[in-house]
């Protein structure tokens, strides 16, 4: 039986209301968002393992580039030639990587109960939940903000009758935001953060398709 995420969240909030992570389930009323990205060995959540995690905080109009997470994990067994084609990360790039258990503790402390922003953010949340739930007994309860949805909702009125190209490279080009350290978790997290601030507080982009 598959339990709906909303129902599971209510149960987990009740189960952990007196525990060390109770604050994660409280409603967030601040003005910060966390842009987060995971690099993994597969695009299939069931088979994938996390090789790096990047996150950066956004406060209002500012990307707090110095307030970040840039975590490398120990190379998993699934780090093969095929998986390297996805994330461009080799075993040598993960030298000094930490255990997934330590990485997850850092993620929970850094993110807190802030909204999580990302490109295909539900994939990243599901990947993290895959490892967080067995270790802590709950999944991330945070509100999720999908960058491509924010982009689409802002420019859809400019492309009546046409399809909106939601590819990462296209959004970056349309917003005139350079892609930083492409195919690294921290690079993608920073790029998404800059895109989000541009969309929320800059002029709406033109729609050239």
Automatic annotation (TrEMBL):
One of its GO terms (biological process) is DNA metabolic process. GO terms for molecular function: 3'-5' exonuclease activity; nucleic acid binding. It holds the Pfam family RNase_T. One of its GO terms (cellular component) is cytosol. InterPro entries: Ribonucl_H, RNaseH-like_sf, RNaseH_sf. Keywords: Exonuclease, Hydrolase, Nuclease. Residues 32-205 form the Exonuclease domain. SUPFAM superfamilies: Ribonuclease H-like (SSF53098). NCBIfam families: PRK09145.1 (NF006601). This is DNA polymerase III subunit epsilon. It comes from Neptuniibacter caesariensis.
């Amino acid at each position: 039986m598959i339990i709906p995420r909303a129902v599971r969240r209510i149960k987990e909030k009740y189960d952990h209301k007196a525990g060390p992570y109770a604050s994660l389930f409280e409603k967030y009323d601040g003005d910060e968002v966390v842009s987060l990205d995971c690099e993994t060995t597969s695009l299939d959540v069931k088979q994938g393992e996390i090789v790096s995690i990047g996150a950066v905080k956004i406060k209002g109009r500012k990307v707090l580039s110095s307030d970040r997470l840039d975590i490398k994990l120990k190379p998993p067994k699934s780090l093969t030639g095929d998986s390297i084609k996805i994330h461009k990360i080799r075993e040598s790039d993960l030298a000094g990587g930490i255990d997934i258990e330590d990485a997850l503790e850092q993620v929970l402390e850094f993110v807190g109960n802030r909204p999580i922003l990302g490109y295909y953010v539900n994939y990243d949340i599901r990947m993290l939940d895959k490892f967080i739930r067995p270790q802590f007994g709950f999944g991330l309860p945070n509100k999720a903000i999908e960058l491509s949805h924010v982009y689409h909702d802002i420019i859809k009125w400019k492309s009546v009758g046409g399809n909106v190209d939601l590819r990462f490279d296209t959004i970056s080009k349309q917003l005139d935001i350079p892609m930083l350290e492409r195919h690294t978790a921290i690079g993608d997290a920073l790029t998404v953060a800059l895109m989000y601030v541009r969309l929320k507080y800059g002029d709406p982009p033109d729609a050239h398709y």
